[in-house]
Amino acid sequence: MANTATLKLEDKEITLPILIGSEGERAIDTRKLRADTGYICYDQGYGNTGSCESTITYLDGDNGILRHRGYPIEQLAAHSNYVETAYLVIYGELPNAEQRLKFGKLLRENATVAPQMQKFFDAFPKDAPPMVMLSSMVGALASYHPELATNNFETDLKNFDQSAAVLISKIRTIGAMIYRHQKGLPFIFPKDLPFADNFLHMMFSEPYEDYKIIPEVSHALNLLLLLHADHEQNCSTSTVRMVGSSAANIFTSLSSGIGALSGPLHGGANTAVMQMLQSIHDEGDDGTRFVEAAKQGNKSNRLMGFGHPVYRNYDPRATIIGKACDEVLAKLGIKDPLLDIAKRLEHAALNEDYFISRKLYPNVDFYSGIIMRALGIPTSMFTVIFAIGRAPGQIANWREVASNAKGRIYRPRQIFNGHPQRDYTPMNLR
Length: 430
Prior knowledge:
About 50% of the residues lie in helices and about 5% in strands. It is mainly alpha-helical. Strands 1-2-3 form a 3-stranded antiparallel beta sheet, with no helix packed on it. The longest helix is centred in the middle third of the chain and has 24 residues.
């Protein structure tokens, strides 16, 4: 296979290197194209642009493959847990017993939010968007840990282990505090519990009555977080890399990523699923009419939580969380008309040719919305759970940017379609 590509521009031929990834991915290296020719590549939305080289996550959407550091997501979901997978994503290898203990100890030591920072919640309205609060609070962590947020890559990397633990642990605590704030409830502080159990404790305990842990619920939440730990160069992770490339500290960078994640086309997609189900129910439909209208091309009956912009096959995470969803619903004995509608839509998508031929399979957002509703988590908090789970991937990507000595600030180009040069017109002549 040739290791160069030839591009014909007017009467010139330009030779461009070809990069080949460890899984056979191929890319034409156009980094010197503008300097050598004056041309740039136009790729709206960067859908065909490789913005970086990374060793963290491999995603093959055509074949439904997702691997973290080489490990298939199916194996991690079956044998690992969120904290161990977070360590793998961040540090590149599964931890040995000593490393796992040390990492867990760091998470426990950094779970509590400073008392002065807790007062920030008093300034937020009760109905403030949860992701706005989460982004603000994560950004504010830089002011409480200035030694970890110097905006100097060399210094910040020396303290990286501490920063990573602060973020993973405190994002979880802040998420629970956001829920309590919106409910007008007193904060419940972390205990010496497993990661997912601690989150459920901080959300649902009462001052004199601790939340009773249900193993199936804890397992489902742990699995949900694990399945969201990283997903290659998605919108929010790319935002973290973009901001981090300016040498911005890890807290500021993740705060920006959380802002990107809040959008309904990204982390907010699971919220849109529940809104769709509620709308179907409010119209007195059990899902049958909605499915038929969707098959007729009615755009107002858009199936939320089906299909994926990257996967052209079944989302491997959906297979895993779909099974867990069935187990939790059966265990809890939940009777919910929205969940009944969801199961009817799922059955149609998996069995009817209209959906199969268009590869409109249920994705992870579809099942995550259902499972979080079953766990008693309100729709407003869905994207916060997503953000807690995604923290390891964003942290790992920030580290790759900070560790790249040859890195440069991210700076996309554009094709300008505005006015050509024109002269200023005085007010009396306009």
